[in-house]
Amino acid sequence: MSSKASARSEQTQTELKIHLQPEYERTVYIGTRAQLEGEGLIPDGVVFPQGIAKLRWTLGEFRFVLNRARPDDFDGPPRGWFQCDNFELTRYWNNGPAWHERELKSKARELREMAYRMTAEGIEERNRCWRAAVKAWDDKAFQAFLGKVPALAVPTPRRGRKSKSSQGASNG
Q1: Considering only Cβ atoms within 10 Å of each terminal Cβ, which end of the chain, N or C, has fewer?
Q2: pLDDT above 60: residue 53
Q3: Contacts of 154 (CB under 8 A, 6+ apart)
């Protein structure tokens, strides 16, 4: 990776990223070596992996996997980012359920939720939510408030030049 790309990568990676993935019962931390060490996530004496190598260890109730991670702003083959100071630390439960057990639990939860939505109580809850949404839609004060929030405001059409095809059609 060129020094220019490396500098750009280090400038854009300002905060430690934390991805909670409860469906896989894991947490993924992505950041620089200093960030991971500064958060106390790396035990003393750990030698960070080089290139494509992964480092694995167990500590208490957790298993850890540490490897290099591609920076978000990096385009190019892996050999270019294997030297970056950007690491991914994944933390798993040491004796957590296997993948198929988690998948079965997830599907069972989905089925329970689907069955609930078909009960009288579930239908009433859905209707209550729908009535609340319609009430908010009809509330002029609430809609005025939403119009002041840039991310929620409805974009107004902008006047601009007519396209050449529409100009030609109007001239006959």
Answers
A1: C
A2: yes
A3: 147
Q: What span, in angstroms and rounded, lies between the C-alpha atoms of 68 and 70?
A: 7
E-assigned strands of the chain?
A: 17-21, 26-31, 55-59, 62-68, 87-93
User: How many C-beta atoms surround the C-beta of residue 31 within 10 A?
Assistant: 23
What phi and psi values does residue 67 have, to the nearest 5 degrees? -150, 170
Domain positions in the chain are 3-96
Given phi > 0 = left and psi -120 to 50 = alpha, else beta, which region is 25?
Answer: left
List pLDDT tens digits, range 111-143: 999 999 999 999 999 999 999 999 999 999 998
User: Sorting pLDDT into bands at 50, 70 and 90, what band is 169?
Assistant: low
Place of tokens 């079965």: 104
State how far the alpha carbon of 35 is from the alpha carbons of 28, 67, 69, 86, 138, in Å: 13, 14, 14, 10, 48
Residue 89 amino acid letter: L
Phi-psi region of 38 (alpha: psi -120 to 50; beta: other; left: phi over 0): alpha
Output the CA–CA distances (angstroms, integers) from residue 88 to 75, 140, 145, 156, 166, in the order listed: 18, 48, 41, 43, 53
Asked whether the beta carbons of 97 and 25 are under 8 A apart, the reply is: yes
